[in-house]
Write a structure and sequence with these properties.
2 copies of one chain form a homodimer. Chain A has 16 helices and 9 strands. The first copy, chain A, has 353 residues and is of the alpha/beta class. Chain A has a single domain, classed as TIM Barrel (Alpha-Beta Barrel). In chain A, helix 6 packs parallel to helix 10, helix 9 crosses helix 10 and helix 15 packs across helix 16.
């Protein structure tokens, strides 16, 4: 099963550690990768991205594949995650959105009324042709990766909906949460749209060779558990069911989700990602000891002196042993100014444990 | 004890309901007020603030008093909170900070190195003279309020420190949390500085007539409970102890604090504020059934049709009955575009329950 890809200079023989852990078993080697590992922390990323706007880079198959593979070459992590952005499926589906450096996604017009939601539902479409740059990028990344598994990437229905309603980044997602309560019918239709786009985006990646899928609900921590279960869980479940039917395991992750961990599992995730706020032994307790976990090194510690970071990584790994399986990761994305050698060092440490 | 201030058009006879609840008893009338009730939701606020920059308004005693009292006049809430801003004590202490409309506080230079922290510790000072505009504003507000109690306002040491380190608003407070771990000595010194400023700011308000104090740790939800207890709790405890020694009850509040509720209580708060994410019966359970609670109407619901909002308010009040006492409030500040009549209506509803 393992393919040793000597030419690429990394050890693809570890290709199954991640998938074993995702399936609830404890592989010999503790798997590790980093959210946003393909990013500005790497000089080779900054060089390759120079002159390419974010959305253009996401839709350039060769460039997206190259950026996807870079951190595997450098850090010997146990997985790649497809280089993309939360709003890519929206852009491909015809939504007017651009990504402004230093700001994030900015939409031509927010979607706040029932009529605007209905218009979106009438027009937003993803088909094979629109998804072709994604399919090509994933195929090329999988080819370059050899045996190292690729994880598909997508934003979850709530976060996509919240971006559409807010029209850009926001703190409390108040406009989105208002729509949820002021017009639950419009909200439900919006979640239908975003779950359809999210599922299509992941299925295209799986069909092209992704061997797992991570559903990022970046903003879901702004919800109470009751609101999540009433207004969001069904839509996330549709996406996660679609992933399961495609035959690969799913990871569900958001930040500030201490209140939501059981609800995220109940949406149908095979693996639950945990941010830095809740220790993994406590997360495992909340999940009844039955769910593989991913996480949860505090990104703030990546800048700390090595003995401080090492003690933290060891603590995370120790607490993760309470769970059925553990894929080591950060509790959030790699900060752009992270020293990449520190990440490599963390991988070496984790693989030694 | 009650003073009926007929001229002002509000019922000051309710002056003790808030303080009774803060002391753990259940008053006859369920007390209610709203965080950021003195704000842009009120046309009289927008009229009075016109032409005054935020920091100028905070330091103009007559204007600050007028803005403080406006929501009591209009809504018949059971408390006023002194109109101010998180960064006011920093500005008074000599820190170079301005408040930009639509952005928030922006600092001349972030405080990120040990030398910068030491320089701040050497220069930041609050004395009676610097605090004179606050003392005068509180005195005037108390005079205008008659029997309605005034709550003193201050940002907590962590949030003040995080603003100083970040140099402005931020999402994850990564720079602040980095300093905490990369140089715990510098961090501790910074927390000494901010706790001294926060305590002096509150003591001045109490000396001028505030009958309670609320310590806002707006950003503390970015911390794990372990980090809070190791690096923050001691500084908050110094402020809360200072409030207690001044003879008034304290409320401690932050958003996203589901993981931190017992730690906030253990810092020495008499009352714990709860945001919209955790139901009050669950918050009460986490606090061992021994702490008066404040909160936690979801601000997103203020825009919902009245039957939806009413059902939510009734649910919040019902769940609050699990606690020893409950002061009804929002789970966060009043959104600026809130219809003020809705707030008045919520007060009437709460007072009828």
């Amino acid at each position: 099963m393992a393919i040793l890809d000597v030419d690429k200079g990394y050890d693809a023989a570890s290709n199954s550690a991640l998938l074993e852990a995702f399936s609830g078993r404890r592989p010999e080697r503790l798997p590790v990768w980093f959210m946003r590992q393909a990013g500005r922390s790497l000089p080779e990323y900054r060089a390759a991205r120079a002159g390419h706007a974010m959305l253009d880079a996401c839709l350039d198959p060769d460039l997206a594949a190259e950026l996807t593979v870079q951190p595997v070459r450098r850090h010997q992590v146990d997985a790649a995650i497809f280089f993309s952005d939360i709003v890519v499926p929206l852009a491909l589906a015809g939504v007017d959105v651009r990504i402004e450096p230093g700001v994030g996604p900015v939409f031509g017009a927010p979607v706040r009324t029932r009529a605007q939601v209905a218009a979106l539902a009438d027009t937003a479409r993803l088909d094979d042709q629109r998804l072709a740059p994604i399919t090509a990028g994933v195929s090329e990344a999988v080819r370059l990766l050899g045996g190292t598994p690729l994880i598909g990437f997508a934003g979850a229905p709530f976060t996509l909906a919240a971006y559409l309603v807010e029209g850009g980044p926001s703190r409390d997602h108040l406009a989105a949460r208002r729509l949820m309560h002021t017009d639950p019918t419009a909200w439900a239709l919006l979640m239908d749209v975003t779950s359809t786009l999210s599922a299509a985006f992941l299925r295209a990646q799986i069909a092209a060779g992704a061997r797992a899928a991570q559903l990022f609900d970046s903003w879901v921590g702004s919800l109470s558990a009751a609101d999540y279960r009433a207004h969001v869980q069904g839509a996330s479940a549709r996406v996660l069911t679609s992933v399961r039917e495609a035959g690969v395991p799913s990871v569900h992750f958001g930040t500030g989700t201490g209140e939501l961990l059981p609800a995220l599992r109940d949406a149908g995730a095979d693996v639950v990602g945990v941010d830095h706020r809740v220790p993994l032994d406590e997360a495992n307790r909340r999940l009844g000891g039955a769910v593989p976990l991913q996480g949860n090194i505090d990104p703030a510690l990546l800048a700390a002196p090595w003995p401080v970071l090492e003690a933290h990584v060891r603590d995370v790994v120790d607490r993760g042993r309470a769970a059925p399986a553990h894929v080591v990761n950060l509790g959030h994305g790699v900060p752009p100014d992270t020293d990449p050698d520190v990440l490599t060092h963390v991988v070496e440490l984790v693989h030694s444990l």
